[in-house]
Structures are given as C-alpha cells and as structure tokens.
C-alpha cells in the first residue's frame, strides 16, 4: 500500500486528524509535522479538523472517529507510563490510519503493535532495536506506510512526511499552497533513505551488507550484477541474498532497482534532463523498461512525474 491510498479519505468531510504530543512543543519532529498541517487546516477551513492532544488528554477524552492518528515524540523525551501509553495506543488504533513519528515509533514497536510491519525508525535509536527486529521490519526510509500503519523517522523528515500526507489527503494544489507559505521547494519521497541509517545499524554487525549497498549507490549509471557485487564484497550470491532478505526485507536485485528508480525520480523533479537522459543516467538502456519499472514502483510514469513538476512550477 502507498500514500496514494490515503486519498480515499478525502471524501470524509470533515477529515479528522489526531496528533498526540508526547514530547516538547519545540522539538523538530513535532514542529516539522504540525506546522504544515496547521497551514493546511487554515486553507481548508471546516473540511479539515486537526486535534492536538497530550497523552493524558487522549486517555480521558471521550472523542473518537479520527481518520488519522499519530503519536509524536523526540528523544530524549521520557516514555509515558505503561498504563497511559497502552491507553493512548488503543485510542490511536481506532483511527483508519495510525502510527508514530520519531521516538514514538520505537514505543509502538516495543508495545508489540507493529508486528510484521515495515517501520521507519530514527537511525539514532537503532541500537535499541535488538528485541523488536523479530516483531517489526526496520527500513532505512524516511517514512513508511504499511497497511493502516504510518511511521516517520522524525527530525527534518517530519516536514516531508506532513507534506506527503497533505498531498495524499487533499491533493497537489493544497500541498503547493502549503509549500509556498512555508517557503519549501522540495519534498523528499517516502522511499528516500536516511543516509546514515544503514551504516548505523549494519556497519559494525554486517559490514558486508553495508559495503554492498555502498557499491550500489556508487554504480547507478552502470549497474553491477548481483554476482559482481557478491564477488566484490567476498560473499557468494546466496549469502548476499540471505543478508538482504534478513535485514532489508528485499533481494539485492530489487533493492538495487528501487535505488536507481529513486534516483531517477529525484532527477526528474530537480533537473531539466530529458526523460531519456534520466533513464540512461540511472542504468536503463530501454525506455519502455524504465517507464514500466517506474510506474510499478511509484504508480505513475516518468512523463507524469515530470508533468507534476511543471504543474507545481
């Protein structure tokens, strides 16, 4: 499931979103999330209701019927008491889509409610994940949607996450108006990676995996084969595939393809290179293969992606 699936909620008027502020109001994760949403609320008026609560308020609030609910916190905020946290989580789970931002993602995983779910966790908290890796699937992405579950690594990525939600829920015109108000030029996509996440989690424990990903990132225009990468890092193909499947939930070939397509999307949005040039720069010798692979991952063609950039401009 992708963020585009959220647009079915746009028919809900007013659309109701709950933000549970479990940390300080001046933390980056909170400010980056709430400011774009508040601008959207001003633009949409009664069509969008943004409710901000503390954990204590949520626990005693009889209100319900939220379409999106997010628990938000930054480190080193203290975790709420277990009983309070359980109550808040249950209230959030009553929403159509729900999840966490920043350190709250770890709280949800620790509570056992993200079993088998792909989650975007702040890389600084990776050292605390040994007990949850069998219950949740950690990704190095900025944010994730998996079924009804939403997660964001927090920090500066909260801005991108909020703007992506606005686009999915209310459309590109509302997102463009919010971006203009906040003087934001570019929104990073969900599948862009925390640059230090892989090294932070796997650098010491799985140096071969980190080395393989580095090779992929350095060879976008002329992709290496899986066998070539395995040989360069000193593993068999099967050993490399096992590492990727265990730690990244993907085969090397699939991970590499998505890496190249993410780079292509970035070039389409940020440069004036032709679509053919972008395909070649990302290792696609066939225009039809590039277009098909791009559409499968992102839900639209390279041409449509470029048209979005022109429309926004």
TrEMBL record:
PROSITE patterns: HTH_ARAC_FAMILY_1, HTH_ARAC_FAMILY_2. The keyword Ribonucleoprotein does not apply. GO terms for molecular function: DNA-binding transcription factor activity; sequence-specific DNA binding. SUPFAM superfamilies: Class I glutamine amidotransferase-like (SSF52317), Homeodomain-like (SSF46689). Coiled coil: none annotated. Residues 210-308 form the HTH araC/xylS-type domain. InterPro entries: AraC_XylS_family_regulators (IPR050204), Class_I_gatase-like (IPR029062), Homeodomain-like_sf (IPR009057), HTH_AraC (IPR018060), HTH_AraC-typ_CS (IPR018062). SMART domains: HTH_ARAC. It holds the Pfam family HTH_18. Keywords: DNA-binding, Transcription, Transcription regulation. This is ArgR family transcriptional regulator. It comes from Pseudoduganella armeniaca.
């Amino acid at each position: 499931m992708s963020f585009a699936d959220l647009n079915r909620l746009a028919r809900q008027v007013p659309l109701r979103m709950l933000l549970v502020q479990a940390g300080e109001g001046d933390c980056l994760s909170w400010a980056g999330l709430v400011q774009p949403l508040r601008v959207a609320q001003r633009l949409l008026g009664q069509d969008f209701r943004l409710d901000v609560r503390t954990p204590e308020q949520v626990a005693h609030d009889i209100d319900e019927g939220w379409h999106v609910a997010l628990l938000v916190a930054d480190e080193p905020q203290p975790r709420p008491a277990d009983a309070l946290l359980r109550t808040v989580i249950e209230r959030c789970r009553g929403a159509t889509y729900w999840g966490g931002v920043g350190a709250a993602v770890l709280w949800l995983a620790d509570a056992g409610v993200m079993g088998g779910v792909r989650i975007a966790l702040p890389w600084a908290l990776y050292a605390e994940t040994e007990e949850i890796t069998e219950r949740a699937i950690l990704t190095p992405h900025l944010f994730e949607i998996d079924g009804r579950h939403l997660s964001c690594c927090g920090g500066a990525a909260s801005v991108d996450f909020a703007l992506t939600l606005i686009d999915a829920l209310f459309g590109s015109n509302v997102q463009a108006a919010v971006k203009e108000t906040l003087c934001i030029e570019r929104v990073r996509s969900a599948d862009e990676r925390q640059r230090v996440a892989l090294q932070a989690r796997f650098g010491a424990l799985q140096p071969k995996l980190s080395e393989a990903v580095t090779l992929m990132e350095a060879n976008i225009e002329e992709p290496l084969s899986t066998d070539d990468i395995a040989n360069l890092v000193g593993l068999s193909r099967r050993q490399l595939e096992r590492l990727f499947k265990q730690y990244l939930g993907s085969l090397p070939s699939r991970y590499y393809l998505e890496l190249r397509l993410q780079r292509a999307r970035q070039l389409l949005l940020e440069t004036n290179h032709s679509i053919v040039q972008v395909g070649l720069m990302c290792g696609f010798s066939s225009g039809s293969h590039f277009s098909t692979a791009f559409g499968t991952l992102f839900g639209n063609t390279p041409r449509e992606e470029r048209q979005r950039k022109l429309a926004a401009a």
